[in-house]
Specification:
Blueprint (H helix, E strand, L loop, with lengths): L8 H4 L5 E9 L4 H13 L4 E6 L3 E3 L10 E10 L3 H14 L15 E7 L4 E2 L4 E2 L8 H10 L4 E2 L3 E2 H7 L6 E2 L5
Antiparallel strand pairs: 1-4, 1-5, 2-4, 3-4, 3-10, 6-7, 8-9
């Protein structure tokens, strides 16, 4: 460094890593493979590291639409992206992985990536709700999430392990060889 020149303030600011959790799901075109492709894509996100991934679980679909069972999993990330940017990246990944806009709510899908938690962020806007609504009632979210982070405190909702214990029952089936 040349004498008399101080480093720029931006050069001395270290990026802040924030924990984030994502739910993955698929029930079309070899769903286990679709979830695996999504894990690979999450690992390649800019400014983000895939730190943990759950096993895959088979679950019955939600809602009134007749469709195949889902394969669900969860990912723990460390990211430098803010919540809105991370959500946009996840939506972009869904598109690149072949997801089309579902014709019916809770219908079949090739891949679904839901941002569940982003650090301590709490918001309830049309474009982004954090923590993800319904997280406390959905076994297909809580079971994989409890596998990788049972003590995670979901902001304003509670610890994952406690939320899972509150569920009446779960019908999820762990898929062997997916851990």
């Amino acid at each position: 460094m040349t004498a008399g020149l101080a480093p720029s303030p931006a050069a001395s600011v270290k990026p802040r890593w924030v924990p984030a959790y994502v739910a993955l799901g698929s029930n079309l075109a070899e769903p286990v493979r679709q979830v695996e492709r999504a894990f690979e894509a999450l690992a390649a996100l800019p400014g983000t590291r895939l730190v943990l991934r759950s096993s895959a679980y088979r679950s019955r679909p939600m809602g009134p639409v007749a469709q195949p069972d889902f394969v669900n999993a969860a990912a723990a990330l460390l990211t430098q992206l803010d919540a809105v940017t991370l959500l946009r990246e996840l939506q972009s990944l869904e598109t690149r992985l072949g997801r089309e806009v579902p014709s019916v709510r809770w219908g079949p899908r090739l891949i679904d990536l839901d941002l569940l938690v982003h650090g301590q962020t709490r918001c309830n806007e049309a474009a982004l709700a954090l923590p993800h609504p319904g997280i406390a009632e959905r076994d297909f979210v809580l079971v994989p999430l409890a596998e990788i982070s049972p003590s995670l405190d979901v902001p304003g909702v509670g610890r994952v392990d406690a939320l899972l214990r509150r569920l009446a029952s779960t019908t999820l089936e762990r898929i062997p060889g997916t851990d």
